[in-house]
Design goal:
single chain, 372 residues, alpha+beta, Jelly Rolls, Phage tail protein beta-alpha-beta fold, 3 domains, three-stranded mixed beta sheet, 8 helices, 23 strands, 32% strand
Amino acid sequence: MKELEYLIEKYINGEITDKDLEELNHLLKSEENRAYFKKAVGLNYKLNLKYVNSHTEDKKAVFKGIKTRGSNVRDLKPRRRYLRIAAIMIVAMGTIFFYFFQKHNTLTNESKYVTIETESGATEVLKDNSFEIKTKTNEILVQQKGDTITYSSLSNKVAISKNVLSVPKGKKVVIALADGSVVHLNSGSKLTYPSGFKENETREVLLEGEGYFKVYHDEKRPFIVHSAQLDVEVLGTSFNFSAYKNNSYATAVLVQGKVAVKRPDKPTVYLQPGMMAKYSKSSDTFKTAEVDTNIYTAWMNGILVFEEQSLGDIANTLERKFNKRIIFEDESLKRERFTAKFENQSISKILESFKQSYDFEYHINDNEVIIR
């Protein structure tokens, strides 16, 4: 019972992990445990709705009361008139919360998988690395094999819809679009794209995160990658584009061909192979530089390369790669800068390496890293 009480308290306080959710779901197969869960969560809901807001009991203290052996809602003894008002609601909301928990648990598990959300609102969860969409005549429109999703050219000839491909932290995906362009998506990224492209119309996609693009050459149909920070326009080329929301910058690095990098109210920047355009969010400025493109495409081979990057931005990269939340107890540490390269190293080995250059402490839990 103590384990159940502990997990319910974490659930109510919003501190429960995916692993805890799985364990709680297992415990709730018991009818007795389900009843206990309904009572605890129902009481929490009542408190949040302020049925007992005129009282001074702390929520955790009230929850502690329910853990007393043999206690029930009435044993907590808030004023009876509040209990009469809320009595039916506690039972009803307990049931609703149990349903919500089951649904929440499913969604949490699904977040570990690559998903495709269609324009209709339906979501395909790609769990078993084998997914297909066929025409009525059994011709393949979309096919997944392993980590690669391919749209056939037939997709250009049927009804075109907007899709959102989401890549969870800890995973990478390759998508071949209907025009023949190929995009390697890094972990924690989203790509909004059409299922097909119309003739003589600009090809446009929206990126949140990081992707390496190999764009199929078509002079009549420019290819534009939009993001919240920058737009990159090409005819046919290969480039890496990084535009994560929580990074302090956005970069476009050209490997082959020619691209135009655009931002509203800024002059268009044209890149030649081996050049990078970097936009700083804090200063609202553009900079261009010659770079080693291998540094910016190494992530496709599981290699992490950092050049004079702040520990804050490095932490964002590690969060996505290892699917762990990183918390800084000392915010000033985020400003420290490092240059390093790691091939298939664990997060502990990476942090230990940084620790040799700058003295800090860290602690790794199941889903969390605390740096102090």
